[in-house]
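Lab notebook, bench 4. The sequencing result for the construct came back, and we need a structural model before the next group meeting so we can plan mutations. Quick request posted to the team channel:

Model the 3D structure of this chain.
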Amino acid sequence: MTRAVGIDVGGTFTDLAAIDDDGAVIARKVLSTPADQSEGVAAALDAFAAAPGAIARIAHGTTVVTNLLLERRGARVVLCATDGATDLLELRRQERAALYDLSAAHPAPLVDAADVVAVRERLEPDVVRVALTDDEIARVVREVGARAPQVVVVALLHAYADGTHETRLARALTDALPGVDVVCAHQVLPEIREYERTATAVAEGYARPAVATYLARLGKTVGERGHPAPSVMTSGGGMRTAAEAAKAAASLALSGPAGGVVGAAAVLRAAGFDRALTIDIGGTSADAGLILDGEPLVESGGDVAGVPIALPRVLVDTVSAGGGSLGWMDDGGALRVGPRSAGAVPGPAAFGRGGTQPTVTDANLVLGRIVAHRMSGGVKLDVDASRRVVAALGERLGATPERTAQAMIDIADAEMARALRRVSVDRGVDPRSCVLMAFGGGGPLHACALADLIGATRVLVPPHAGVLSALGLAMAPERREAATSVMQRTGALSAARVGKLASALAAQVEGAVRAWMARTRYVGQGYELDIPCAPGDDGAAIASRFAERHQARYGFVLDREIEVVAMRHTASSHAEAVRFARHGASTWTDCALVDDGSPCAAVVAGDAGGAVITLPDATLYVAPGWTARALPVGGWLVEHGS
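Done. Here's the predicted structure in token form:
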């Protein structure tokens, strides 16, 4: 019996990791199908060849929402907003798209200005300033219907505190427009900040129909093979059923990358570490993350493709620096790498699928850092093709193929190192104090160079590095979230009040493992920190933890009152839904040092030219001055100067 299967869809490969009854992991990798991701999922399941009924659970990580936002091909949304506040999406926060580039512009809002309907009403936190009348509701319904929307989003001022007006209007719209989904902003995000709440609700409406269609198609495809309906990873690192995920599309914006960090945290704990920077290098992009105290760092909010989505998300900083990133020369004659990618089609030149431009993968082949003749997924590698396209770029630059290839890798490494610094230094974490955990098909290839750039001296290459995101999906528990607005100063928050809020949230979701977070700030501050809390806490306890966290994150505290803006609650089925074996097919005896064809030893030192270790689903490059040691739990610990 296969207890759990995780399937992660990337820009180039779709990865499958299955955990069987004894905890052993079986991996499969196939090329992704960008036109319809469910086809790649089906191909991965077919490659795994499990009998009907043999799989107990399927967990899925998808980039459907990210792609919708990047490509702007979501649903036609009509937005109902309070009269006088209809330009929120246009005005944003009035920050520049790029501080020193006056010509840079933000992406266009997901809703055109002509599709925003003003609603004459106004609730304030403690009073109804303008009542929402039946006549006004009828007028709004007529105007919305005339625009023939696929989805209607209702986002009225101060609905985080009182959702009465949003609920009344949404009910009338639902009755008048059968088949049209209506989204209430206070149900998506019951927190202050009208712009973020509106933008998040619009993102939900924009993505919901496509997500529902995709999950229905995926469920049919999987069901035809006799397997259970898949659950879906959320940006916050937990799983939801497909039916729940279809009604929470905005929470899937970072579905795929979150699985990698969840898997990395599980391996990190098994290896005896509690703090790590993670770098997941795939074919299209690289994702940097942070693990503290053995758990992925989860934050509230952030932009995805220029769209603010203020929902909990595993911290991930994504850059366009994957194995498929294209090398090219700009108009000034400088070498550039990315953001364009060869993706799965046509892929790098080495794949023999029509690629004619050099990629980072081609550069690694030219330098001899990938020495296998075949990659996971059945892709044959053509080293001569890689050398031709890299040499052609080198001729334009006046450089040898080797120098061009090294320059391409250096540029990609510099971009990834900046992402690693953003997720660590920007949060008061010294990267030198962290293990660098490198995974994805390209992570172990670039790990030593990235560690040198950020000052780290230890690299952990996990077992099943090439499919760790899929393994993280297979292990992730089901997790549901609830939130409520608080807007109260800590001095007035009694233990009874905190307990009442915590209990009300807990009643909304089921789960064996529960946690509460108070979104807390100094009065007048423009940002919050998520502070752990529990039903027995009072405001003083939350304030004390906030001061400690603020000092650690920003290096100072203020003599100012502290307030709790909102409280969030998560309920999980278990800390890990399924555990994989700590020993087994991932240990060092199953890889080969293919430089000379000899079997892998337990210790491999990078000589003057470095050493290459071929892993089952990735390649580890041990740079000069570094030494790799096989770990009892599987995987490798690579240390500088050992």
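Confidence is low (pLDDT under 50) at residues 582-599.
Will bring this to the meeting.
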